[in-house]
Amino acid sequence: MRSASRHSASSPLFRLLLWLRRLGRALWLRVAGFAVLALLAVMAAHLAAPLVPAWLDDRIGAKAVLPVLEILASSMLAVSTFSLGIMVQSHRSAQQTTTPRVLTLMISDPLTQTVLGIFIGAFVYALTAFILFQAGFDRGAPLVLGVTLAVIGSVVFALIRWISYLTTMGTTGDALDRAEGQARKALKSHRRQPALGATPMGDDIVTPDVVTTLTARRSGILQVIDVKGLAECAQGPVWVLRRPGQAVLRGAPVLQVTGDGDPDALLSCLVIGDDRTFEQDPAYTLTVLSEIASRALSPAVNDPGTAIAVITRLERLLWDWSQADPREVIDHPEVYVRPWTAEEMVEAAFAPIARDGAGMLEVATQLLDALNALGEGGDDGLAAAARAMGQRARAHAEGGLRLDDDTQRLPGSGARTAVR
User: CA 57, 62, 65: angle at the middle one, nearest 5?
Assistant: First the structure.
């Protein structure tokens, strides 16, 4: 029997690691880190002042360093304000032209966080050193000048990267690249552990007649399941009735267990929040890409080229997913989780596009070609789902196209057109 201390320690540790991982993607954390480093650099330079040779201290005094610090502080304030404005404008532009769901990926962009952190950190450093010098702590001026030159070098390097990055930041292509990268990562993890390391729960799994049902303590979206924590907290099999990305209601069943177990510890292994997240939800990543295509197909935007680009990306994502090693890794066989199926992922990826692009021949043609290709793949589940979606997409297109000639130009379900 597992110890009670192990029961109580697993979930809090998992939640702490999850919180730290999410905190690491926050914009303010990296900015605050660079600001703290700037303060430490100023203090270290003043504390190490006795190590500076007298001749160097006489040659490079506070009067030589103060103008440089003043210029650096004023310029970094302007650059930081400008960069923050550009970032907000880019985020709003991407949100309006693609989908609001991509904003999460843009906010956690490491390059943006690093550049803004360097700019604001340089401002804090220059302002702190300037104040200390004016207050009379002017010893160690050569060291402060050396640190200042290093800070200026990092600022110049960050500016060069920032200028190059601004050419694509916030564009539709940038949003597509971010969404595709996140989807590829999620699908790769799903292929290896479709049930998050637990035993996949299908229709053939039968629960015992006598089980204890645990209900949710709050309403929201199930974001993350701590499968390892469930295995450690329970003294028997555990059946998870919901999966990441699905809504749960307070008082609705979420777990079924056999044997004794601490209900609070078991329920704490389910992280419930207000919104869907990308951590354990591969269908959500495909939904984000599909939403970009739907926005492009709206009458207000009317950009079928973006929808075609999304279809191409979705096609290669699901194709690569089907070609990956299908061997599942089950680390906790006593926990049962219902995985996202190929049918559901194809539905999330292509159903909105089939509906919204039905009246455009070029979009319908590209979609049917993609589904025909996936229907010929080696993964039986994905192939069957693609063929079924292909029939729906064809029905949508036949109902949406106004001319019989356009309907006859739709590709057949068995071969790819010459364009591809």
Answer: 105
